[in-house]
Amino acid sequence: MKKEEKKIISIKGLKKTFKTKVTKPGMSGIFKNIFSPDYKYIKAVDNIYLDIKEGELVSFIGPNGAGKSTTLKMLSGILFPDSGKIKILGKDPSKKRKELSYDIGTIFGQKPQLWFHLPPIDSFNLFAKIYDLDKKIYQERLKNLINLFEISDIINQPVRKLSLGQRMRCEFVLALLHNPKILFLDEPTIGMDIIVKKTMRELIKKINEKEKTTIILTSHDIGDIENISTRLVIINHGQIVYDGDFKNIKQKYLSKKLLKITTEDKIDLKDFKDLIVIKKSKYYIEFEINTKKFPLNKVIDFLFTKYKITDIGINEMPIEDVIEEIYRDQR
Amino acid sequence: MNSQLNKYLSISFINIKESLTYIWDIIFGKVIFIALIIFVFANLWTVVFASKGEVIPGFTLSMMVWYLVFGEALVTSIGRFVKEVGDDIKSGEIANYLTKPYNYIVYKIFVSFGKGLINFMLVLFFGGIVAYLMVGGIKISLVSVPFLLIVALLAMLLNLVIASVISLFAFWIEDSSSLNYIYSKFTFIFGGMIVPLEVYPPLVEKIAAFLPFSYSAYHPSKLVLIFSFKTFLEIFIVQLLWIGFFIIILFFLYKYIIKKVSVNGG
Ligand SMILES: Nc1ncnc2c1ncn2[C@@H]1O[C@H](COP(=O)(O)OP(=O)(O)O)[C@@H](O)[C@H]1O
Ligand SMILES: [Mg+2]
Fold first, then answer.
1. Which of the ligands is closest to the CA of residue A73?
2. Could you tell me which chain B residue has the CA closest to the CA of A123?
3. Is the separation of the CB atoms in A49 and A232 below 8 Å?
4. Would you tell me how many other CB atoms lie within 10 Å of the CB of residue B165?
5. DSSP character for A317?
6. Which pTM value belongs to this model?
7. Where are the domains of chain B?
8. Is A217 left (phi over 0), alpha (psi -120 to 50) or beta?
């Protein structure tokens, strides 16, 4: 077997159901909640099978509540499956969480891990201790990461004085210091603007290519993985809807774009009769186009010659719509 | 084991280092306010002493004020520990900690211990200035200082382990600020943070003096004012016992809760 072909993560029949109390309003509700509460069962992860090879970059994409975070939590051993088997580097994360923590890097959410008022080097030194890194190995590792992420001139400045991009690079260095074979990133781009998202994507790509780190990232926005070649796993209601190359999905389903324009002149609906109009008022229209039928540049050219446009937005189709189309095709 | 302790001490150390970089924010955001409370109480006690004389036999005016300085310094030093743990749980941030090779709650204790040391010294310094200007100094023999320091550190540690046990209930109760409130009121009332327990009726005083809370405020603060090696030893031993007791509870409770949370998802 070639090295790249080695299976690093294997998931078989993974299931997780959450049981939550349904809270009822009012005084009688309080008593009912205490003495005979009603329970609601949520199938967060529902029979997932997945094999991930060493060095792969995998994106879990799905709407909010699809079960992405729950899956990552089970992979990192902080949540135990109801049934099914997980093997990471041959180990069961629910039994070997601490042992695996030396091989896995995780970033859940957006809260910075660097000490805000101190220079990054202080946080790096601390993490070297936390991960019991040998001094020599740590120095060597740090040198490499500093070069790779080009942070040599900022590691001695307090984090609060760094730009967002610089901070992000330092956060990744921190997460990679113990040379993890696997990195879990849960919604790394949530709440970011387009430019910062782009920086983030490039960093993820770089880590995967240069460090050969196996990465699983999650997002509810399929636009997030544009321009990175990744294996795409679409998750909906705890099940895998699609598992394969991102390119296929892109060609087949992402040819649709969502356009929103604001104009100074009155909008003439006749111009949009072949398109699916979603929302319309006098000076604003939201519509869908199939770029295979109507190339984007043609549509935009047309619009700009006909109308005085003050604002334009072009978006990917929401993941919910993509999923719906995948289902429709499967039927 | 040794390298484990080393790991956790490094965590305290980085937080001490960070606290020092924004020391003025701590002073203006928190310490000045506590110094103000001490100022108000010093005035209050001055009036009370002028009209009624000693409230507690043997406690002079300056002793009362300095008692408050030590009580405040010890108790406020650990910050809002319970709420911070609650926030980690609520925000899901805890996932980042649970995937690291350390124990989350021990990690938190050492973080707060580091920050707490700086807070403690700042309150002692600024509160001490206020007390000195208002009521003059008190006599502390130089020989007693190392022993007082030991008791002070153990008081903070005890405070932190109790807070840790309480904070774990945030896994069940959504609103951790109410837990924080209950806990701070306990140290306030039963711990004797502001006035010595002698102001209570004898039975209440006896109970409060027995409870662990008073070993993180009342006993250590009083020891500063009235030092004897025998009292030091008594306090020291009971502190260790209580700390041990709560660490054992913490150990089992934490294990139980993490297991439960891993199975049920909180
Ligand atoms: N600890 C929990 N207790 C109860 N329900 C939960 C818990 N965690 C997640 N869920 C539910 O499980 C489903 C999947 O959640 P999650 O994995 O966070 O989705 P995603 O990350 O894809 O947005 C959601 O319906 C969510 O409300
Ligand atoms: Mg999520």
1. 1
2. B14
3. no
4. 19
5. P
6. 0.89
7. 2-264
8. beta
> Token pair for residue B265?
């998802």
Greatest extent of chain A over all pairs of C-alpha atoms, in Å: 71
Contact by Cβ (8 Å): B80, B180: yes
Give me the pLDDT at residue A57, please. Answer: 96
CA distance B109 to B11: 10
Q: At a CB cut-off of 8 Å and minimum separation 6, what does B243 contact? A: B154, B157, B158, B161
What CA dihedral angle connects B15, B20, B26 and B28, to 10 degrees?
Answer: -170
In degrees, rounded to 5, the angle at the alpha carbon of residue B95 between the alpha carbons of residues B91 and B96 is 100
The SS3 of residue A316 is strand
pLDDT digits (tens, 9 = 90+) for B106-158: 999 999 999 999 999 999 999 999 999 999 999 999 999 999 999 999 999 99
Q: Flag if A130 and B7 touch (Cβ within 8 Å).
A: yes
Q: Which residues surround ligand 2, an ion (CB under 5 A)?
A: A 69
Please give the ipTM for the structure prediction: 0.91
Domains of chain A: 3-103+180-252 (3.40.50.300), 255-330 (3.30.70)
CB-count exposure of residue A174 (10 Å: 0-12, 13-18, 19+): buried
C-alpha distances in Å from residue B203, one per residue of A69, A187, B185: 54, 57, 19
With vertex at residue A179, the alpha carbon angle to CA A203 and CA A128, rounded to the nearest 5 degrees, is 110
Q: Which residues does A269 contact at the CB level (< 8 Å), separation at least 6?
A: A277, A280
Q: Flag if A118 and B14 touch (Cβ within 8 Å).
A: yes
What is the C-alpha separation between B116 and B166, in angstroms, rounded?
Answer: 18
